[in-house]
Amino acid sequence: MTTLYISLFTWLFFFGYWIILISITYQILTKRHSTPAAIAWFLVIYIFPIFGIVIWLFFGKLYLGERRFQLANKIWSKTNVWLTDFKSCETFFEKKNSDVATSLFQLCKHRQGISGIKCDQLKLLTNAKEIIKTLIHDIYLAKNNIEMVFYIWKPGGLADDVANALISSAKRGIHCRLMLDSAGSVDFFRSKWAQIMRNSGIQVVEALKINIFRIFIRRIDLRQHRKVILIDNYITYTGSMNLVDPSLFKQSAGVGQWIDLMARIEGPIAGTVGIIYSCDWEIETGKKILPKKPKKNKNFLKLKKKHNSIQVIASGPGFPKNMIHQALLTAIYSARKELIITTPYLVPSDDVHHAICTAAQRGIKVSIIIPRYNDSILVKWASRAFFSELLDAGVKIYLFEKGLLHSKSILVDQQLSLIGTANLDMRSLWLNFEITLVIDNSQFGKDLASIQYEYISHSRLLDKKLWSIRSHWKIILENFFYFFNPLL
């Protein structure tokens, strides 16, 4: 009898296993994946059977959960009235762009339904203490509302100073909302700060909660990766910096202090960023918080003749599909003289990789700046698999040595700039909630160039000859991790 039960259990196990395997195969075949991604998934689930199925359940499907998915599909139709009112303020918008930026701004207008917005109050911030000091000053001066979203809020040091400023503002009647990613900000939610903030009147939301039982209703590695601060629907911050004290953050990893880049903007761009924030808030909470209808504020209209023209690109479920990927390709192919890229994680799609190589081969001066030491071993080895082809094409690869360079920026011909939260990896390009600013302005481009050149001055140029004679076991490791590139 025992033998019969064992045989029955074994038969049921294998029957269930093959049903699941066939189901996953069907899902891969019926959804349009890139060929490398599809092949990688087939190899993973068939070569590593049980492990492959588990990996698929965790990371294989891009879904947000039924409730969130339905909300995401309805959000843009509900915001059309707000956008129509916003677009009626014609003085906010730039009608003409530079030659290098025209294609990208046309793409953004077609995909997102809005033209580039004028702005002359835009400042790049690179020093963590300066960023925090400026932010705290703005928080204390807030008159109506403060909204924040971060992937990581790590208590301690400078982060606690921001927390205290936010609490003080909430107690004096400022409406404060804080949305933090569950995985990235796990230390925050385990600390005293979450409850202290809620007790002071701040609305604190844990976005995309980590729960093993949610793997069947939502992809577990989908993350809220944006870093955005909105104050009084007028001041906007965004960029690569999480709400952490760089002198304390991940010091045990041995990669040095994290180096970031943030932009502070004043003006009507806060309206479009506010719409993105309201969509994220509604997807997570079900509650609508549209920003106030735009008015022709006198401060918005005091624009210099040579102002910035800005587009905001948002990605993630519910937002225009593949938008950041398309923007990157358009920007790279628009280059005529120089292309500079900074990214902490270099694991691009094949299309982006080939576009970069093609740019160098058609005579563009192409430089990529990445950290020499990385906090992700998988990404570290996978990124190296791209080096040989990039170097052969004439791309200069600089290894930054004064910490973990976490800035994400692209500069085209010192005129068209892209900065924000998106890394040059598959997760940022296809999966996470990200945000990128696109700026068309030569002076801003020169300011960004000076920062990038400073990064280069603290970097070591990768020597093509030395790279070509690296040990064989390193090549094997690089190619092994490159194999999983579509899954990273």
In short:
This protein has helices at residues 2-30, 35-47, 49-59, 66-87, 99-112, 128-141, 158-171, 186-190, 193-199, 269-285, 298-301, 323-334, 350-361, 377-384, 387-393, 426-430, 442-457, 464-468, 472-483, and strands at 117-119, 121-125, 145-150, 175-181, 203-207, 228-231, 235-239, 258-259, 262-266, 308-315, 338-342, 346-347, 365-371, 396-400, 404-405, 409-412, 416-420, 424-425, 434-440, 459-461. The N and C termini lie far apart (47 Å). It is an alpha/beta fold.
List keywords for this structure.
Endonuclease, Chain A; 3 domains; nine-stranded mixed β-sheet
Q: Can you tell me the residue ranges where pLDDT is under 50 for at least 5 consecutive residues? A: none
* Count of alpha and pi helical runs: 19
Q: Which band does the percent of strand residues land in?
A: 15-25%
The chain-level mean pLDDT equals 85
Task: Using the alpha-carbon principal axes, give the shape.
Answer: globular
Helix content: 40-55%
* Corresponding CATH superfamily of the largest domain: Endonuclease Chain A
Strand order, main sheet: write it out. Answer: 1-10-19-17-16-11-13-14-20
* Total domain count: 3
* Span of the ends, CA to CA: 47 Å
* DSSP, total strands: 20
Please compute the radius of gyration using only Cα atoms. 23 Å
Please give the largest β-sheet: 9 strands, mixed
CATH class of the largest domain: Alpha Beta
Which fold name fills CATH's third level, the topology of the largest domain?
Endonuclease, Chain A
Structural class: alpha/beta
CATH architecture of the largest domain: 2-Layer Sandwich
